[in-house]
Amino acid sequence: MGVESLLVFIIIGAIAGWLAGLIVSGFGFGLIGNIIVGIVGAFIAGLLFPRIGFSMGGGVLAAIVHATIGAIILLVLVKVLKRA
């Protein structure tokens, strides 16, 4: 993976984590935490979506939406586990 790819991956993760923090109200981890949540969310969505047959196509916008959905899933799980 080149430096450019890593930078794009981090930017997409940051955007996805920020969006997920806005959507899941009252929950966010700051800038670095949101980047990590976005990257982990993208990984979760990358594992989960192909198994259920969900595909959005390619491109940066699809990657952001994909990572955001995964980050939302992650934030909701963390929120539920914190209540328990």
In a few lines, what is going on in this structure?
The protein is an all-alpha fold and 84 residues long. The protein has one domain (13-78). The protein has helices spanning 3-23, 30-52, 60-83.
**Amino-to-carboxy terminus distance:** 39 Å
Helical residues, percent: over 70%
Flag low-confidence runs.
none
The total of beta strands comes to 0
Number of domains: 1
Compute the CA-based radius of gyration: 13 Å
Name a few traits of the molecule.
84 residues
How would you sum up this structure, described in words?
- The structure is a single chain.
- By secondary structure, the protein is mostly helical.
- It has one domain (13-78).
- The protein has helices at residues 3-23, 30-52, 60-83.
- The mean pLDDT is 82.
List the topology elements.
Elements: H1 3-23, H2 30-52, H3 60-83
